[in-house]
Amino acid sequence: MGGQMQQSNAAAATALYDGSLHNAGLPSDTGDAVMARWLQSAGLQHLASPSASTGMDHRLLPNLLMQGYGAQSAEEKQRLFKLMRNLNFNGESGSETYMPTAQTYGGVGESDGFYSPDFRGDFGAGLLDLHAMDDTELLSEHVIDEPFEPSPFMTSGARAFESDLNLRVDTQQRGQTDVDASVSFPTNEKENTTKENNVAKIKVVVRKRPLNKKELARKEDDIVSVCDNAYVTVHEPKLKVDLTAYVEKHEFCFDAVLNEHVTNDEVYRETVEPIIPTIFQRTKATCFAYGQTGSGKTYTMQPLPLRAVQDLVRLLHLPVYRSQRFKLWLSYFEIYGGKLFDLLSDRKKLCMREDGRQQVCIVGLQEFEVSDVQIVKEYIERGNSARSTGSTGANEESSRSHAILQLVVKKHTEVKESRRNNDGNDSKSGKVVGKISFIDLAGSERGADTTDNDRQTRIEGAEINKSLLALKECIRALDNDQIHIPFRGSKLTEVLRDSFVGNSRTVMISCISPNAGSCEHTLNTLRYADRVKSLSRSGNSRKDQPVNSAPGSKDSSSVSLLPISVDLEDQEVKAVDAGRRVVEKENASHSSATDNEKLPSTFSSNYAFNGREEAGGVTFPSIDRDRVDMKNTYGSSTSQRGNYYQNSVDAEEKVQKVSPPRRKGPRDEKQEKPGNWMKKDVGGSDLSTSTFPQQNAGSYSQSNAGSKRHESELIDGNINAILEEEEALIAAHRKEIEDTMEIVREEMKLLAEVDQPGSLIDNYVTQLSFVLSRKAASLVSLQARLARFQHRLKEQEILSRKRVPR
Ligand SMILES: Nc1ncnc2c1ncn2[C@@H]1O[C@H](COP(=O)(O)OP(=O)(O)OP(=O)(O)O)[C@@H](O)[C@H]1O
């Protein structure tokens, strides 16, 4: 075996040498003089003479090396090795790289192991290591001959990745025949994969929808402009106090901004397509759409899984995957009011469980094997018809839940059934290779609609709100490579837990409406997106910089005396540039508790206090960002802004927040009036927007912030308790019905007995009395539970109304 290997090593090395000469344009008989020169250049001239003198073919040099002739010391071997490598790779010896044969393919892929003098052990050992494997573990020739077909939709980066995929597939196969998530690539491989496939860990894409018929009929302005596929500007119409109209511009930069003319196909190409090959690299990918109701989330998300299946199936047909029994499975469920329902199984209620390996299993979730797009289309349609939808002002068929469609690539050893429960039993259902989850989030502002909606919608909204914030936190933590991912923040993030650990990719598509009436929401969406992106190390620098474009509005002195309410998010804008990253770095242990939400305790526990900042002569005390969102309705000078921004950094770095629901846009105007600031609903599904008049800034005390925070926590806690009690109440009701039925049966029996001739009436009376007491007790118990629940609802209502101005 050893001899065989040595032979093949020698052959490989000879081939390499041959190749290098060939590439150098040198005929093989250019002779020893050339070789001598090369050897000389490496200080190995003494090796040249024997071969020259014996007339040995220079192509045998590697053989000499392998057999222990020629270079004797390790240093010589290394030099020789380097020389060979240079011959092969540097410009001097030819522009083309060596084309390996099937047998040496893996070796080339592992260039570090084969050519580098830095490989483990000495030269010979390194070569032996490389080939010390069963030939059967190598890719078969036909696999290599059949490269990945470049998708017509693939971006150049992804194409580059695909062309490289064979190498990695080869590596994978050699390294492990069983693609189990528990087996990991060597670190270098991982890094290379990330680098090479050029797929960012988090990608934030914005999509603007066109004005719809209603908006056009109302002659609404399109206030969103897109530039260079990367910039989006919101032209916010505003009024000065003297009622002069002006426009405030907010510019953002994202990984991609897609305008209203972009098709769903192009959206796919920009977002999901580059990720698809990574699914076979044990990546857990998540693609979600975020945005206000009616902004196009469902419109955007629905075609994506179809396109993804098309590409996944195409890849699955490659022999390398087919031979490994890779298969694609689909499941579709929704999270509604903190509960999970299977959309492909008559909305069966699902339970979430963690197994011993802390893998999240959704007990009872039906998975279906899919092998073509048509069947996926049918599943999606079936699932969609089962989704919880309702009507909102902006969208007649609005999604009221988070819908999650998962495509999972599994490796099967033996699959007999085409449909089975995902009971977490890997051996039965195959091992997960990778997966992609498509999430159509519930409209983001519904969490905000607290005043105009009924109680049910408010609770629903609070849950949505919570999950959106939790999702954002997880994404941030993910991108910051934090050890702790706060996935327990909501059901949504718990479900996506395995997408937050290990090799993950996230694409967020922020959908925005272009009409002026949606300005506030559009800005909120973009800010949410920006915060996801800007806090990541790889994020674009933040750009939301309002510019007063109305004539005269640039005159800062003319506006500086006006009540100032600086949009908190604008502060964050600057914060990023003006030190936020620094602050973050310095307080790395803070995690990312910068939002207006209650974070898991692990997030807040490390929170440091940065002291206070002076801003334009006004000292801002330690400010709860929830309460102090300073919205610059009238514009402000740059210097003022700078101060406030700085201030906001402190404010938000200090306090952990609880996010109260946001209210609807039209009320914002009222709240921007000075005096309303104390009452203003400052939460939001994603942002807080509260007015903070300058003159009041100083008086805004820590205790105020504290008590408000307490209030917020109370609300959040209350909502959680309500959800739990709701469940208990429903369960108790069911139980009561069962008991009642049992009692009714007993009563019927009693009646039947009493009708019998010679029955004892005393017995009947005693038993009836006993049965009725049980019946009454059961009812009273249910009534008591109901009363408690009603009380809880009232409490919640009072609390939320306290915070939301009417
Ligand atoms: N890019 C677009 N081009 C054309 N029409 C669009 C586009 N985006 C959305 N629409 C249309 O706008 C309407 C609302 O879109 P959609 O239902 O996707 O919104 P949504 O964000 O999912 O709303 P909700 O959160 O309430 O479910 C639909 O009629 C849809 O066809």
The chain-level structural class is alpha+beta
**Approximate shape:** globular
Total beta strand runs: 20
Bound molecules: adenosine-5'-triphosphate
Distance between the termini: 84 Å
- Here the CATH topology of the largest domain equals Kinesin
Radius of gyration: 33 Å
Question: How many helix segments?
Answer: 30
By CATH, the architecture of the largest domain is named 3-Layer(aba) Sandwich
CATH C-level label of the largest domain: Alpha Beta
Helical amount: 40-55%
Uncertain stretches of 5 or more adjacent residues: 1-31, 50-69, 86-196, 420-427, 446-450, 537-703
Features:
806 residues; alpha+beta; Kinesin; 4 domains; 12-stranded mixed sheet; 30 helices; binds adenosine-5'-triphosphate; Kinesin-like_fam; cytoplasm; microtubule
Question: What would your notes on this structure say?
Answer:
The chain has 806 residues and is an alpha+beta fold. The chain has four domains: 2-181 and 187-193, no CATH class; 194-534, Kinesin (3-Layer(aba) Sandwich), CATH 3.40.850; 555-700, no CATH class; 714-803. Helix content is 46%, strand content 14%. It contains 30 helices and 20 strands. Strands 1, 5, 6, 7, 8, 9, 10, 11, 14, 15, 16 and 17 form a twelve-stranded mixed beta sheet that branches. It has a four-stranded antiparallel beta sheet with strand order 2-3-4-18, covered by helices on one side. Strand 12 and strand 13 form a beta hairpin. Helix 1 crosses helix 5 (74-89) and helix 16 (303-316) runs antiparallel to helix 18. The radius of gyration is 33 Å and the shape is globular. The chain binds adenosine-5'-triphosphate. Residues 209-210, 212, 291, 293-299, 392, 395, 398-399, 443, 511 line the site of adenosine-5'-triphosphate (ATP). It comes from Rhodamnia argentea. Residues 546-560, 589-608, 633-649, 686-706 have a biased composition (Polar residues). Belongs to the TRAFAC class myosin-kinesin ATPase superfamily. Kinesin family. Its main location: cytoplasm.
